[in-house]
Design a protein that fits this description.
Number of domains: 1
CATH architecture: Beta Barrel
Shape: globular
Strand content: 25-35%
Helix content: 10-25%
Oligomer: single chain
Largest sheet: 8 strands, antiparallel, barrel
CATH class: Mainly Beta
Radius of gyration: 17 Å
Structural class: alpha+beta
Distance between the termini: 11 Å
Number of strands: 9
């Protein structure tokens, strides 16, 4: 896998989740435009809004497909029992409520499960993730994210807001290609909510293209 793919995924699933959790445990209290029915199905990562200036190594944003679906609690507890090494009771106990799964179509596929935070629309806490080609890479996290449906004209965008050091927002669309003019309103909304941000970075090549270009 390309080093840049690895970096971007690590940024989303690692560095973005190392900040000390405070009020972000409830997504800063922001009530997102969210319903499970509207976010289900296939979306494409089309851009990110960095929190800080990215280095040259981090600059390329990879395009890839993500499927959102709802998962039943019993099935996820069974999977955690099967793949985690001796999961603690508290890990299994926190798998409850409404669970959303994000399947990232990379190589290999990567799944992330998060549970809804009661009383805050669109706010989720990650409970479990799994590299689908290796049961030894399953992990538990406490990461927070918030999913907000941004509707402008006839084209919806999905904003995945994060709390951490690298990325503020991952931007999804139902189609693969966007341009900077479509992201201006999104950038303005994020700035209003979270203060000054870096300019959005539109994704470049797809995972497939990067894999084919490897020597």
């Amino acid at each position: 896998m390309s080093g840049k793919i690895v970096y971007f995924l690590f940024a989303v699933f690692g560095l973005t989740y190392t900040a000390n959790l405070g009020k972000e445990k409830r997504c800063d209290g922001f009530r997102a435009n969210f319903s499970m029915n509207t976010i289900m199905g296939t979306w494409y990562v089309v851009a990110i809004i960095p929190k800080n200036v990215l280095s040259e190594y981090e600059e390329e944003v990879v395009c890839y497909k993500v499927d959102f679906s709802e998962t039943d609690v019993a099935g996820l507890k069974w999977l955690a029992n099967r793949t985690l090494n001796h999961p603690h009771k508290e890990v299994l106990d926190r798998i409850n409520g409404t669970i959303v799964r994000q399947r990232y179509h990379i190589d290999p596929p990567y799944d992330v499960w998060s549970k809804s935070v009661e009383g805050v629309s669109g706010c989720f806490q990650e409970v479990f993730s799994l590299d689908m080609n290796s049961t030894n890479r399953s992990k538990e996290f406490d990461a927070m994210m918030q999913i907000h449906l941004f509707e402008k004209s006839n084209e919806p965008f999905l904003l995945q807001m994060l709390w951490g050091k690298v990325i503020s927002v991952v931007v999804y669309s139902r189609r693969e290609n966007v341009d900077t003019t479509q992201l201006k309103d999104i950038s303005d909304v994020v700035t209003d909510l979270r203060g000054p941000q870096q300019k959005p970075r539109i994704c470049g090549r797809s995972v497939k293209d990067l894999m084919q270009s490897k020597p």
